[in-house]
Amino acid sequence: MSASQARDRLLAAAVDHALDAGIADLSLRQLAAAIGSSHRMLIYHFGSREGLLVAVTRAVEERERAALLASGTTLQDARQSWQRFSDPRLWPQERLFFELYAYALRGRPGTAGFLDGVVESWVAPVADALVKAGADERTARADARLGLAVVRGLLLDLLATGDRAGTTEAYERFLQHASARAGPAPPAADAGSHSPR
């Protein structure tokens, strides 16, 4: 097995464990044991615990982005995306996303590169989907960025309060405003897993 294949295998196992049980509170040794590896192998492939957490969070974001883009741009699609992003099963990974976001903003070692594309990786494909649905490019980019900001803000609210009904009602109000303003709804974007890592 090549080094890249081994890294991919370890990353896939870590992502699965993150989504099943969460990993933010695990030491590197505990995480290695949980996925059938050693902490030395994780350090070799990811550099540090933070490097592994960043890789896991990016992989989860890629999954969520793919699911979002496959879902479409109707109001019902946006509602379904929010239901997925606000599902309590994703909360541990979304907490990790926001924790890493804060660490990267402060320049914490091991988080270099986390902020690269943390916005644009969502804005560009969502804007493209909105353009295909009939929006002009400038409006589509603004709506995609607004949708991302709203979803990430509501996910922070949800993680702080646990008020899924209240945040869902607020998201529904956002969709009503967006629909009245521009026709197709901006798709939800996660935190990170959110989602709207």
Give the SSE map.
Elements: H1 3-21, H2 28-34, H3 39-46, H4 49-71, H5 75-85, H6 91-105, H7 120-132, H8 137-161, H9 164-182
Question: Would you summarize the structure shown here?
Answer:
The chain is mainly alpha-helical. 71% of the residues lie in helices and 0% in strands.
Give your account of this protein's structure:
It is a single chain. This protein is an all-alpha fold. It has a single domain (3-182), classed as Tetracycline Repressor, domain 2, CATH 1.10.357.10. Helices cover 71% and strands 0% of the residues. Helix 4 packs across helix 6 (91-105). The longest helix is centred in the last third of the chain and has 25 residues, at 137-161. It starts with a helix and ends in a 15-residue tail after the last helix. Residues 190-197 have low confidence and may be disordered.
Keywords:
197 residues, mainly alpha, Tetracycline Repressor, domain 2, 9 helices
Q: How many runs of DSSP E, i.e. beta strands?
A: 0
CATH top level class name: Mainly Alpha
How would you characterize the largest beta sheet?
none
- Show unreliable segments: 190-197
CATH architecture: Orthogonal Bundle
Helix- and strand-based class?
A: mainly alpha
CATH superfamily: Tetracycline Repressor, domain 2
Total number of helices: 9
The topology string of helices and strands comes to HHHHHHHHH
Radius of gyration, in Å, reads: 17 Å
Fold-level CATH name: Tetracycline Repressor, domain 2
Residue fraction in strands:
under 5%
Helical content stands at: over 70%
Q: Report mean pLDDT, rounded to a whole number.
A: 88
Whole-number total of structural domains: 1
Measured between the Cα atoms of the first and last residue, the distance is: 31 Å
The global form is globular
